[in-house]
Each structure stands twice: as C-alpha cells, then as structure tokens.
Amino acid sequence: MPGFAVSFPSQSDFFGLTSSYKPSLFQEIYILVHHAGFTREDVMLMPIFERRAYMSFLQKEVDEKNKAQKAANAKAKRG
Fold it and tell me: pTM of this prediction?
C-alpha cells in the first residue's frame, strides 16, 4: 500500500488565543478578581459563558448603584 502525506495548513494561533482576544480576557480577569472577589485561577477555569454571566451581573450591580447615587445626589440638592 503506497504511503501518502496530508498537510493541514494552520496559523500559529490555531490552538491558542489570538493576540486580539488576550487583552479582553486579561481585562475580564482583572475585573472579576478585583471587584467580584474571584481568584485568577477561578476565572481561568470558568467556561466563557459563566465568566461573561458574572461580568453581566457585576455590570448590572454597578449600574444600579450609580443610578441610586445619582438619585440621592439629586434629592440632596433639592432638599
């Protein structure tokens, strides 16, 4: 049986993160470690959908706090 060779061209980032993805990952790691109390290892082991869900929960919490602070400031100015 004659042998044959198959070549699959792939980019160097085929099995890893692209350079454009890494900054957003690092930002998510920083935010979740600094503001949500996770460890870096916790964040790195999370599936992407879970990490994004926690980012969404944190964003909603921050938005609600900002809204409440603005309302309190407006009330203090009026009264």
Answer: 0.72
